[in-house]
Amino acid sequence: MYQFPIKYYKDNLIFSDNGCWAGYELVGYDYENRSKQEKESILRNLIAFLRELKNDAKILIVPKRKDYKNILSKNYKEMKSEDPLKEIAQLHTETIVEYLEDKKRERTFINTITGEEIRRVEDEVTEYRTYLFIKLEENKLSEVITNIRDVYEYALKSPQKAIEGFLGKQRIKVLDSKIRAFKKAIKVFKGKVSVNVNLRVLKSKELQLLYKRINRRGIDEEIKSTNFNPKAYYKQKGEDIELIPDGNDIKCLFAGKMKPKDRYIEFVSDYGTSYQSFLTFSEIPDLEFTENSEFLYYMQELTFPIETCIHITPLDEEESKKECKELKKPIVAEFENAGEEYSVETKVYEAREEIEDMEAELYANKVLMKMSLNFCVSADNLDKLEKRVDELKKYFSDREYEIVRPVTDQYKMYMDMIPGTGRYTEDYKRLVSISSVASMGIGASNILGDEFGKYIGFTGPLSTKVLLDMKRACLENQSACATFYGNLGYGKSFNANLITILNVIYGGYALIIDPKAERSEWAKHIPWLADLISIVRLSSGDEYKGVMDPFNIYKSSSDKNSEKYRNNIEEAADLALDIITGLCNIAVNDDEYIIISEVLSKVKVSDKPSMQLVIKCLDEFDKNDKLFEKAEKLARRLRTFEDVGMAKLLIGDGTEKAINFNNRINILQIDNLELPDSEVPESQYTPKEKLSKVLFGVMGHFAKRFAMMDVGEFKTILFDESWAIKSMPGGIKLLDFLTRMGRSLFTGTIFNGHSVLDIPSDKIKNTISYKFCFRTKEVEEAKRMCEYLKIDVSEYNIGQIMSLENRECMFRDLDGRVGKLTFDAVLDEFITAFSTTPKKRDNEESIETPQGGE
Fold first, then answer.
1. Which helix (H) or strand (E) covers residue 340, if one does?
2. Which helix (H) or strand (E) holds 543?
3. Which of 135, 385, 471, 813 would bridge 714 by S-S if both were Cys, CB 3.0 to 4.6 A apart?
4. How far apart are CA 194 and CA 199, in angstroms?
5. 422 with 380, same domain?
């Protein structure tokens, strides 16, 4: 038996008797909906990534069965105890969990390789996570003892330490400066490969969970992390600090008694009995990239979890040539000895072809690798284990790959699959090409969405649940903005509403800019939220006069020396300038622009700034000024808006009360808003359309004010008809603010529009974290959507976007994965409230589609 190998870990560094290793998660990428060209692009990225490995590396593909009851319950358990929605959130969670339980059903899937039927319960989906561990440095006694004389002196001075050193029992000592150097190397490596793969640095608690699960494989029980941290002692060493790990306390993570058996290992603990069997390739196939070479990906279709360990030793160019030469010698000899009288066996021809492929690979990529590929099958009883082993063997035999189940090497293979350990057996190590390693489907998955969050729908052939937690983006220093694009009638507004409501139910606040007044009856259809829904419906009535005056919107502290006042008065003046230039068609080069800028400078320092004061200042413009006549004309023009229709909303006297957005769901509407069609050029706008667009732009500033509110919880802004923002005065600046500053303001904005062209710049486009692309009927828009989602502009992807059904969209999540998402609102109240598709009257059949429509 071997000594316990793991001595210490901190952050993502592991110190073992084999050296120091760094741990990462290789963030899984979507694979189900990729074209052949995209898959080839992924292959090239993996090859480039593997070429950067200079030391030993382990790739662990670890199964994780998701307990949705616990995951979804976390949403309401994290809410404040005094939150009036906490009980509703708990009831909603229980309803979703019950719904998902009832939804379980046995379904038939087709094995993509053999064509055989696979039957499994839909909800029994195993999620796979891919971890990478790279060796940073060996722990070698030779670093301390450099020659025979040193060995002799070392043994005389410290005989016990010398013996322990040679037996591998010596305590590891690490200088703090070396740890800092390791962390720098980790950062450099991650940056170097970031263009090829998405690596995430692991945390200490994740390593803890990876170690805890090892002896509990196959036991259906949630493993929880604790506050455990490995012990270490610190000692001053010159100007540096020496860290001396205890090394024994980590053993507590490997709970249970080990009982090695023939062809499997049994672990008995307080958590149950785990039966584990380890298998490996007898000969590693020389894989060529085809549609079906990614056996690690397709292995996820099996009905039980399988853990995979790929142990890689990269060779440099010289070593690679030497290995090729050694492999080639016996094959050449076979042909030479055969002469003309004897034929050579088929397997020798195959071996020669394999070597020739290796040489071609060496020419292309300069290096080869030595690799062992092991699998762990586990269960909580022996019969189940044997059935699973047989099924895995059949899976590979169907692909004409042969795997073996060694009798004597089970323990060695168990040790080899521990993160941070070396290679315990050389018997199954084979020379392989980088292309073969990359072709196996490392990192490919059907994962979409977040690990924790609210249930919003499902994806993939196994209906894998998709969860979403928009506030995660803010917590990870990213923008929490989302876009919904596509044609009318396929569920954009419906599902933007769903995400907004879910954010509110679980502790958040929301402001919805509702220019078409589609949400007027939410309180009626969702009665248990009625008291928490406030609808502000602005009209041309005198009671609303001036409520959209920019100086009213940004009304704040009366202390003119406060920073908040100064910031708000500048915002108000900027908005006033946008309103006036928009209403009066004033360009930056016009004299009127100079006039209004000068007037606003005076208004900003007044006691009661307002739009009426702007008009008054224009009336009082210096008559001797050469621009007087234009100022007089501008004042007259603005005065016509004071008491006319909806325009009166914009011109107040500074005494109006500001609109309150303190409820949980705040809906802002304006009567008779007539936005122009997105295709109509501005030169063809009617006066009413022009005014409507200005009013809509001002509504956007209510969103900005809402974002700046500090409510201590995540806020969501839903901007319906968001296409209109970019062309209104100040619109691009508003978009930039909401997308860029939302992170620090703990606010996510959902832009519900029509086309990717709604986004005015690449700068803003790059801040969008969540992208929902629904069906479009236009080929050019489908192409733009492909580019926006960062997937290949291929016939396959274009066709897929143009054939999406109601509720379906292509979704790019925070981690950059893209897949087809089918939204699932679940509750009848939501389906009724969110549907905007008209129904036929009387006894005619409804034309409404469930969970859809705009």
1. none
2. none
3. 471
4. 7
5. yes
Q: In angstroms, rounded to a whole number, what is the distance separating the alpha carbons of residues 456 and 75?
A: 13
Query: Which distant-in-sequence residues (6+ apart) come within 8 Å of 364 by Cβ?
Result: none
Buried b (16+ CB within 10 A) or exposed e, 138-153: ebeeeeebeeeeebee
φ and ψ at residue 214, rounded to 5 degrees: -60, -50
3-state secondary structure of 214: helix
Distance CA 275, CA 219 (A): 9
Give the angle subtended at the CA of 722 by the CAs of 717 and 723, to the nearest 5°: 165
Reading the block at residue 406, the tokens are: 């060694």
Closest Cα to residue 37, out of 681, 786, 671, 771? 786
CA 497/CA 720 separation, integer angstroms = 10
Question: 320 is written with which tokens?
Answer: 């690679």
Position 782 in a domain: yes
Question: Are 505 and 597 in a shared domain?
Answer: no
The verdict on 642 and 712 lying in the same domain is no
The answer to whether residue 586 sits within a structural domain is: yes
Both 480 and 574 in one domain: the answer is no
Query: What tokens appear for 427 in the block?
Result: 């018997």
Residue 333 has a pLDDT of 65
- Hey, what amino acid is at 734? L
Q: How many CB atoms lie within 10 A of CB 612?
A: 21
Instruction: Please give the Cα distance from 736 to 153 (Å, whole number).
Output: 69
Quick: pLDDT tens for 641-659: 887 788 889 999 888 888 8
Q: Torsions phi, psi of 403, nearest 5?
A: -115, 150
CB 594 within 8 A of CB 627: yes
Handedness of CA 585, 589, 591, 594 (dihedral sign): positive
- Which segments of the chain have a pLDDT < 50? 113, 123, 139-158, 160-169, 341, 557-559, 561-563, 565, 841-850
- Shared domain for 408 and 519, answered yes or no, is no
Looking at residue 394, what DSSP letter applies? H
* Under 8 Å between Cβ of 430 and 283: yes
Question: 121 forms bridges with which residues in the sheet?
Answer: 106
Cβ neighbours of residue 665 under 8 Å, at least 6 residues apart? Answer: 501, 504, 509, 510, 512, 522, 529, 532, 533, 534
Cα–Cα distance between 36 and 49 in angstroms, integer?
Answer: 20
- What's the CA gap between 430 and 370, in Å, rounded? 5
Which pair of structure tokens corresponds to residue 465? 């649940």
Pairing of strands 264-269, 19-26: unpaired
Token digits for 272?
A: 């149950």
The per-residue pLDDT for 557 is: 45
d(CA 100, CA 119): 19
The answer as to whether 82 is a domain residue is no
Instruction: Give domain status of residue 536, yes or no.
Output: no
- Same domain flag for 676 and 641: no
The whole-number pLDDT of residue 300 equals 84
Question: Rounded to an integer, what distance in angstroms lies between the CA atom of residue 74 and that of residue 453?
Answer: 8
- Strands 509-513 and 117-121 turn out to be unpaired
- State the CB neighbour count (10 A cutoff) for residue 99: 13
Number of domains in the chain: 3
Task: List the CATH number of the domain containing 510.
Answer: 3.40.50.300
- Compute how many other C-beta atoms are within 10 angstroms of the C-beta atom of residue 691: 23
- Asked if residue 650 and residue 673 are part of one domain, the reply reads no
- Selection from 377, 364, 426, 383 nearest residue 403 by Cα: 377
Q: Is there a contact between 617 and 599 (Cβ–Cβ < 8 Å)?
A: yes
Identify the three-state secondary structure at position 571: helix
Of 188, 825, 782, residue with least CA distance to 494: 825
Range of the domain at 596: 546-655
Three-point CA angle 698, 702, 705, nearest 5°: 130
pLDDT, residue 341, reads: 47
Q: Which of 639, 655, 671 is the last residue of a domain?
A: 655
Domain end point (choices 620, 655, 690): 655
Residue 592: CA atoms inside 13 Å, Cβ hemisphere, count? 18
Instruction: Please check whether residues 552 and 519 belong to one and the same domain.
Output: no
406 has which bridge partners?
Answer: none
